[in-house]
Amino acid sequence: MVSIFIFWILLSLIIYCYIGYPLLLFFLSFIKKLIHRKRLSPETIELPDVTIAIAAYNEKSFVDQKIQNILSLNYPQNKIKQIWVTDGSTDGTPELLASYSNIKVLHFAERLGKAMAINHAMEHVETPITVFSDANTLLTPNALIELVKPFQNHNVGCVAGEKQILIQQNSAASSTGEGIYWKYESFIKKLESETGSTLSAAGELYAIKTALFKKIPANTILDDFEVSTQIALSGFTVKYADKAIASEYGSLNFDEEQKRKIRIASGGFQTLFTKTELLNPFIKPTLTFKYLSHKVLRWLVVPFAILLLPIINIIIVLSVDNKVYIFTLLVSVIIYGMAFAGIVLKNFRISNHIFFLPYYFISTQISEYKGLLRYITNRHNHKWEKAKRET
User: Fold this and answer.
1) CA–CA separation, 293 and 18 (whole Å)
2) Residue 138 pairs with which residues in a beta bridge?
3) For residues 103 and 67, what is the distance between their CA atoms, to the nearest angstrom?
4) Helices (DSSP H) in 195-301: which residue ranges?
5) Burial class (CB in 10 A: 0-12, 13-18, 19+), 210
6) Whole-model pTM over 0.85
7) Would you give the DSSP letter of residue 194?
8) Is 31 exposed, middle or buried (0-12, 13-18, 19+ CB in 10 A)?
9) How far apart, in whole angstroms, are the C-alpha atoms of residue 307 and residue 332?
10) CA neighbor of 231 nearest in space, from 282, 149, 156
11) How far apart are CA 188 and CA 197, in angstroms?
């Protein structure tokens, strides 16, 4: 039956995307470590001058905390420069920043978006390494040291730090879901890095060789993805530094988290339809394979497979007497039932947040639909729509 064939194809794609691909990377990483013994890095390295570039739109409440965090880093302060871009800020962010010495503030009355803010900042960077970070994220004491270490290898053009979600005792279930997602995402990035190059960096913390930066289009939604993949496509590797940690609190609730995910989904489809060189295996075959496995399947295939799978499963159960398909349908009913319960209970404070994981997973797929609709109807906005976060 055609329906059975389609069922197993869709199920296989979902399993490969979330389980098979990480297992494949783990196996390849293990083999690579057996063949190539890891060289010990020197205990002391010459730390380069770095510029921390921060795009801040109405971030007054985080300015003092962020600057004190930077000043507390275990990195020679005479080697750290700061550039803050405050385009369109109306809450007093530029005025507060102006009270600090040794910080360059670029203020534009018009809100141009984060991509243009980055372009403007890069025009003023004079150090060999540029570090990008968000105003509301806090770096661990050794974050900068760990971030610059991989640049000892001249083939490295970009280094991605690790994003961690701070979970409090009374955190919303959405924070738990977001935290688990980023642990899983970080695990994949680490494996991708160990097998050559990871795909991209997260905007909370990453560094690039300044000379490799190319201006990004003003309407870019996923600026961190654009900057890092540009470098990967130019022939340099993107490494992952799991000890370079940037932390922030999770989304205030599921609605705020979905708002963030819809924007990211819209940016993913923008990338898919505009950065077509990533789909060309003749340019960077390994990078293309990772892009298809890690991103394209998640953006374009899995959301529709998740929707179609139970429908096809019902058709099969009505046509074939086979306990296997009754079992798979039962599993689908349980998952969707828990997701529906999550919708009902999402605003309640329930200690067992694991209960909400099916809802978080399903809502992520729904965000992909909404992101695609937003993109194809040209309603996507490259200007950052901040999701409210816990404090």
Assistant:
1) 9
2) 247
3) 10
4) 223-233, 254-274, 285-291
5) middle
6) yes
7) H
8) exposed
9) 10
10) 156
11) 11
Count the domains in the chain.
1
Q: What is the residue-wise DSSP string for 11-59?
A: HHHHHIIIIIHHHHHHHHHHHHHHHSPPPPPPSS--PPPEEEEEE-SS-
- The residue type found at 360 is Y
| Residue 267 covered by a domain | no
From 195, 191, 153, 154, select the one nearest 36 (Cα to Cα): 195
Residues in CB range of 386: below 8 A, 6 or more apart: 57, 58
From residue 285, alpha-carbon distances to 29, 232, 295 in Å are: 17, 12, 15
**221: helix, coil or strand?**
coil
CA distance 366 to 372: 10
Q: Which domain range does residue 63 map to?
A: 50-252
- Contact in structure between 83 and 51 (CB atoms under 8 Å): yes
232 and 334 Cβ atoms separated by less than 8 Å? no
CB atoms within 10 A of CB 29: 17
Q: What is the pLDDT of residue 15?
A: 96
CATH number, domain containing residue 162? 3.90.550.10
Total length of the chain: 391
Q: Does 331 fall in a domain?
A: no
Residues of the chain with pLDDT > 90: what percent?
69
Contact between residue 233 and residue 278 where contact means Cβ atoms under 8 Å apart:
yes
Strands 237-249 and 156-166, by their bridges, are parallel
Domain-located, residue 259:
no
Cα–Cα distance, 282 to 52 (Å, whole number): 35
- Is residue 278 exposed (0-12), middle (13-18) or buried (19+ Cβ within 10 Å)? buried
pLDDT (average), residues 273-278? 92
Query: Which of the pair, 267 or 257, is modelled with greater confidence?
Result: 267
Residue 306 lies in a domain: no
Which amino acid, one-letter code, is at 1?
M
**Going edge to edge, which strands form the sheet with 237-249?**
103-106, 80-85, 50-55, 129-133, 205-209, 156-166, 237-249, 138-139
